[in-house]
Amino acid sequence: MKPAPTGQLLEQGLLELARARRHLEFSFNQVAGLPNNFDQLDEEQLARFEAFCSRFARAVDLLVNKVLRSLDRMELMTAGTLLDVVNRAEKRGLVNRASDLREMKEVRNLIAHDYAGAKGAEIFAFCREQKPRFDAVADNADS
């Protein structure tokens, strides 16, 4: 079985990202009125927060690992590190600062490993604050 053509991989990545963004937008609307202070949240609100942060993390993964890496492949760039990928995204004008994407990816790792929710409030505030910036990068990658 031969691998899918590069353009097809990009198209598939963009479709997956679009679906993930719809789910992320739904979750974002569900948490829009929630306070950042977790002491004030009940179990249902905490579940909404967790869904939003998980969806943010998945969407960031799709953007960086599938879409941006597929763009690199289309331009015949050698596979590189995360830093290479985000720096090339900045050079393409997809993101204003590569450090924004790098920070989103770092927070994605925090979300995946914050089992006890020790950094929950900090992560939640970051994801809500960064969602518009993430949307702008995803829109640029899709155009």
Q: How is the quaternary structure best described?
A: single chain
Please give the CATH class: Mainly Alpha
* Unreliable residue stretches: none
Helix residue percentage: over 70%
CATH level 3 topology: Four Helix Bundle (Hemerythrin (Met), subunit A)
Going by helix content, strand content and strand pairing, the class is: mainly alpha
- The total of helices stands at 5
How would you sum up the major sheet? none
**Overall pLDDT, averaged?**
87
Outline, from the CA principal axes?
elongated
In angstroms, what is the radius of gyration?
16 Å
Number of strands: 0
Count of discrete domains: 1
Query: N- to C-terminal separation?
Result: 31 Å
Strand content: under 5%
Tell me the CATH architecture: Up-down Bundle
Run of helices and strands: HHHHH
Q: What does the model show?
A:
The protein contains five helices and no strands. It is mainly α and 143 residues long. The mean pLDDT is 87.
Key terms:
143 residues; mainly alpha; Four Helix Bundle (Hemerythrin (Met), subunit A); 5 helices
Summarize this structure briefly.
The protein is mainly α and 143 residues long. Helices cover 75% and strands 0% of the residues. The chain has helices spanning 6-31, 43-74, 82-91, 98-113, 120-142.
